[in-house]
Amino acid sequence: MPDIKLSKTHSLSNSAVRSKIKKLMKSLPIKVTGHWDGDEFVFDGRGIKSGRVKLGDKMIVMEADLTWLGRRFKAKAMQEILAYLDEEFG
């Protein structure tokens, strides 16, 4: 089970969602690297063992497995990510 699992509905085109996901990854306080694999953005970074953002027609789902250190900042990370998702996806 992932340490972080968030979902958000949307009514945007896939290209618009991809752009917003890329912007989210750049806005995180840690350096995140990743790539698109079909409709899934696969990423990792300091404090993140592995993560993915799954892009659906009307919903995105973000999951991440954190390192021991990353778990210490889980609440703050989730708060920032949720704020971004609410702002960008309504």
Attribute tags:
single chain, 90 residues, alpha+beta, TATA-Binding Protein, 38% helix, 38% strand, globular
Describe what this molecule looks like in 3D:
There is one protein chain. The chain is built from three helices and five strands; from the N terminus they run βαββββαα. It is α+β, with helices and mostly antiparallel strands. The chain has one domain (about 5-90): Kinase associated domain 1, KA1 (TATA-Binding Protein, 2-Layer Sandwich), CATH 3.30.310.80. It has a five-stranded antiparallel beta sheet. The model has no long low-confidence stretch (mean pLDDT about 95).
Beta-strand proportion: 35-45%
Strand order of the largest sheet: 1-5-4-3-2
Count of alpha/pi helices:
3
What does the oligomeric state look like here?
single chain
* Most strands sheet: 5 strands, antiparallel
SSE arrangement, N to C:
EHEEEEHH
Helix content: 25-40%
* CATH homologous superfamily assignment: Kinase associated domain 1, KA1
Q: Which architecture would the CATH scheme give at its second level?
A: 2-Layer Sandwich
Question: What's the structural blueprint in terms of helices and strands?
Answer:
Layout: E1 4-9, H1 14-27, E2 32-37, E3 40-45, E4 48-55, E5 59-66, H2 68-71, H3 74-89
Antiparallel strand pairs: 1-5, 2-3, 3-4, 4-5
